[in-house]
Design brief:
Blueprint lengths: L11 E4 L2 E4 L3 H24 L5 H21 L14 H15 L8 E2 L4 H26 L4 H24 L5 E2 L12
Antiparallel strand pairs: 1-2, 3-4
Helix pairs in contact: 1-2, 1-4, 3-5, 4-5
EC number: 2.5.1.17
Keywords: ATP-binding, Cobalamin biosynthesis, Nucleotide-binding, Transferase
InterPro entries: CblAdoTrfase-like, CblAdoTrfase-like_sf, PduO-typ
């Protein structure tokens, strides 16, 4: 099978049920999900090489599967009641993981900057790309039907990346990088 098809040479691409311009808001939304998936793969590779973080690597690999489902759910040109892949269950699972990883890191009182370990910094890249994906999906939802479970999942996922980045630093014996000019803006956990 050839990788190149030449069908996109004039600036169009195929979606499920039709063709659109490559700068269509649907392509922008699922393309940003694809970018996030690539960064997540990089984080998973770092986690797999980081000793005692194989559980995080496995969670990231599962997230990559779920991100592909999210992209698929955004790739419908035909808006007649598509059968969506993403349900509410993955977001609920993320909430459990967020709680688990949050408990592994010290309480925070100030804003956190990306950094510490390589893995933590990469997870912060994932967090920011995830937020951009969320903005693209919100724009898409203004013009086309969008699976609401995708929006919920992506919103929860950025919180997961934040919690995982902090846990990665803690588990690797590295401090988070605090924003030095920040006042104490978070309350300590009880």
């Amino acid at each position: 099978m050839k990788i190149y098809t030449r069908t996109g040479d004039k600036g169009q691409t195929s979606l499920i049920g039709g063709r659109v311009r490559k700068d269509d808001i649907r392509v922008e939304a699922y393309g940003t999900i694809d970018e996030l998936n690539a960064y997540t793969g990089q984080a998973a590779a770092l986690a797999a090489r980081s000793g005692d973080l194989s559980d995080l690597a496995q969670h990231l690999e599962q997230i990559m599967q779920e991100l592909f489902d999210c992209g698929s759910d955004l790739a419908f040109a035909d808006e007649k009641q598509p059968v969506y892949k993403v349900t509410g269950e993955p977001a609920v699972e993320l909430e459990s993981l967020i709680d688990q990883y949050t408990a592994q890191a010290p309480d925070i009182t100030r804003f956190i900057l990306p950094g510490g370990s390589d893995l933590s910094a990469q997870l912060h890249v994932c967090r920011t790309v995830c937020r951009r994906a969320e903005r693209r999906i919100v724009t898409l939802a203004e013009h086309h039907p969008v699976n609401p479970e995708v929006m919920i999942y992506i919103n929860r996922l950025s919180d997961f990346f934040f919690a995982a980045a902090r846990a990665a630093n803690a588990r690797q014996g590295m401090a988070d990088v605090e924003y030095v000019r920040s006042a104490e803006v978070f309350r300590k956990s009880k």
